[in-house]
């Protein structure tokens, strides 16, 4: 499954697939519930993605003021690359590989083993707890 979302497009999706790719540009937004093995997300130019579900592997590239909200997207392996004031909220239950540059922020949920490949500029790394629903 491959999604390309441009301009100010807004989408809501339910996806069941082995492999998925989301490419979001130019203020586009997507809300998705996904069940699958692998998801690759590329966010550029103020794009916003909110994704929930379960995966084996998640790869995120967030650039230029984009936001990836995956607090409720559980994944065994997560690879994150953030640049230019982007934000990523990730829920890794296994391994997390992190590259953060510029004024980017990464928020971690769960207790992954973390490998930092780059940490430059005024990047921030936050450890958060999932709030239980009442």
Could you characterize the architecture of this molecule?
The chain has 134 residues and is an all-beta fold. It has strands at 2-5, 10-24, 29-43, 48-63, 67-83, 87-100, 105-109, 113-119, 124-128.
List the helices and strands and how they pair.
Elements: E1 2-5, E2 10-24, E3 29-43, E4 48-63, E5 67-83, E6 87-100, E7 105-109, E8 113-119, E9 124-128
Parallel strand pairs: 1-2, 2-3, 3-4, 4-5, 5-6, 6-7, 6-8, 7-9
Shape call: globular
SSE sequence, one letter per element = EEEEEEEEE
Q: Uncertain regions: pLDDT < 50 for 5+ in a row?
A: none
Task: Quickly give the structural class.
Answer: mainly beta
- Total E-strand runs: 9
Averaged pLDDT, please? Answer: 95
Oligomeric status: single chain
CA-based gyration radius:
14 Å
Tally of structural domains: 1
Number of helices: 0
User: In whole angstroms, how far apart are the ends?
Assistant: 34 Å
Biggest sheet architecture: 9 strands, parallel
Strand content: over 45%
Could you estimate the helical fraction of the residues in percent? under 10%
């Amino acid at each position: 499954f491959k999604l390309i979302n441009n301009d100010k497009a807004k989408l809501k999706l339910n996806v069941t697939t082995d492999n998925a790719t989301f490419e979001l540009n130019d203020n586009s937004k997507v809300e998705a519930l996904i069940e699958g093995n692998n998801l690759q997300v590329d966010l550029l130019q103020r794009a916003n993605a909110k994704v929930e579900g379960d995966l084996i592997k998640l790869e995120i590239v967030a650039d230029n003021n984009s936001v990836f909200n995956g607090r409720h997207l559980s994944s065994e392996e997560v690879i994150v690359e953030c640049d230019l004031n982007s934000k990523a909220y990730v829920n890794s239950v296994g391994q997390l590989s992190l590259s953060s540059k510029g004024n980017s922020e990464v928020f971690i949920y769960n207790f992954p083993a973390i490998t930092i490949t780059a940490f430059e500029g005024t990047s921030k790394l936050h450890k958060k707890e999932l709030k239980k629903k009442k």
